[in-house]
Amino acid sequence: MRETTTSSSRRATCRHELLATTMLAGLALSPVSYASAQTATSDVVTLPTIDIVGKDGGPGGRFTGYSPDMNKPAAASKSKIPLLQYPASVQVIPREVLDDQQAIGLRDAILNNASSVAVGYQFYDQFIIRGFDVGANIYRNGLRTVAVTNRETANLQAIEVVKGPAAMLYGRIEPGGLINLVTKQPLLTPYVSVQEQAGSFGFTRTTIDATGPLTADNTLAYRFNGAYVHSNSFRNFVTNQNAFVAPTISYRPIEQFRLNVDGEYQNTIFVDDNDVGVVAIGTRPANIPISRYLEDPAVTTAHPNRQQRAYVGYDWTYDISSNWSLTNRFGYSKVAYNQAITGIGSINESTGDAVRRLWYTFQTREIVSANLDLNGRFSTGPLEHQVLVGTDYFKFDQPAFGFSGLSPFVKPVNIYNPIYDGVGLGGYTRDMDNFYFVRRESWKGLYAQDQISLADNRLHILLGGRYDWASFGSRFSPTSLAEALAFRSVEDKAFSPRAGMVVQPLPWLSFYGNYSQSFGTSGGISPTGLPLPPQKGTQYEGGVKAEFLDGRLTATMAYYDIVKTNILQPVPGTQFSIPVGEAESKGVEIDIAGRLSENWSVIGSYSHDDARITKDNNAAGTFGNTGHRLANVPLNAGNLWLKYDFLGEAPGLSLGAGLVVVGQRQGDNANTFQLPAYARVDCFAIYRLPLPGPALTAQLNIRNLFDTTYYDGTLSRFTIMPGAPRTFLASVRMEF
User: Fold this and answer.
1) CA–centroid distance for 314 within its chain
2) What is the value of pTM for the model shown?
């Protein structure tokens, strides 16, 4: 606990403030550290501040504050190196930010709060970091999981955005970075939260979060998170139904050993809206209502997409000594898809008549991921070493089959005057399938790093490397699954080095630099049916990290320069992709988060990213894209979210507002059309009732307050996703 001295100017209200803040803090109803009050018997009286932003973030771990502790490591680092001494940029979005913004999906949670992050293709939870598409393979507690859409955030404690190549730790990933989801863990203090949310377009969501010990000696504890969503959309015909459960069991028989076993199951049924949206006419999105549905509802509503996702895994850590520990993680995830999409393949821009194609497919994706890490500390003379030695294994399997192309049962549509008189799939049978695709990938990796500290802990040098033995194979066949299975895998070996340095002249300030390489896999489908070449990246980065206001406010500024080869660009109107020769992304990003005072909290970022194609894939310059900006990457973007907790003036009340500004983006790598710049304003109000018994919180969020028309991202001229208009989301949460 801290001690706070208050001035005599507040003596008139001291008794009321002390009563109110003590009640609120006792019920853990506010995420801030309440200022102490004073008695009326002296000019200056010091009382302890009641701070519920502690190790576990208050009840249920919800009150985490807006910034991470820079003296603790990020989960994604796989090490015990504090963030302030880690020679790379890692941005953490804590649970309290997700709650205040009522961020239900990953897309909103990350785009509203992180620098240098954008989106392109909208079907999956897929992100662009530092100019490069990092794919839809999200990491969960350090293990890669299967690509999905509509991933739930109900069981997340934090989201980590790792910037730049992390191949040394994670194998064949893309150089822009990665997203790591940190899940809620069982707590020994019993806690139950039930929240009901309701909002625009028929949106409803019910969530439950329950945790506590299972045995009297606290060796076993549990946590259960569940969510159910049902909603329509501002887009015509679009619906979504999502059920999610996530149980976790924690076992700690002795102080040195801890084991977590957890699982997730998610069943999502939704009418597709992510393969068309609106289309480009000329150099801008078509001037049509953003609610207009250009797919064939006779197909998509009669055969809604279904996604069933399952995950089971464990992690255990054994503390060999105070300086050495061993950690093992394992995860298995699988998703089964049934997709019915009627995307646009071509359009007459003069008349607005568009030809639609059918994509009707069944596919599964399975991932097995595991690693074993040894962390340790030791000294050699004046040098302090913090080492990590590890090995990991990854296996991915994806068979898919269905129909892709023109169908006699899917009619053309006029984007200005759509007529919904389709016949659905008509006489379609599985015998009409013309699309068979198989992709398999696996690797085994060994990695090691040593962070050497010297000069009275003011200089830290990180040296590391990884060696991969990888196998990749894929094949597309128009005739049979057996033909698709008859592919030859490509065997690759690669070394991924990493070097970094941190200079820490003051305990709250550090300067860092790093050099790293990545070795990734091209995940698209080649028109030839053969595997696409691997993607490789190289990054130089430098920056500064700092803590202010006794650690309440953190800031990071970074400059980066990344070169990547064999990035993919889609072939419009098809499911295929082709590699581009080389692209470079260089820029500056700034992130701040934390508390400006006892009342004010802030999270904000700014990025300037110049991402361009530097070499065309075709020596003859057929594509002509050299010098063009990469699609979906704004040159400038920023966001700012402020919250004010009223404390003594109006105990329990919090108000906040956010601003998201995104510059103009190119819609494709040929730069034939652009998505216009936009600014969006959001706001919210929270009131926590100081009631005896269960704690009650009422909240209202308004997104896009001024009803701005904007576009989130695009895949091609035929797939531009509009952002939502003004929406309201109200919630009531009861905590026991």
Assistant:
1) 21
2) 0.89
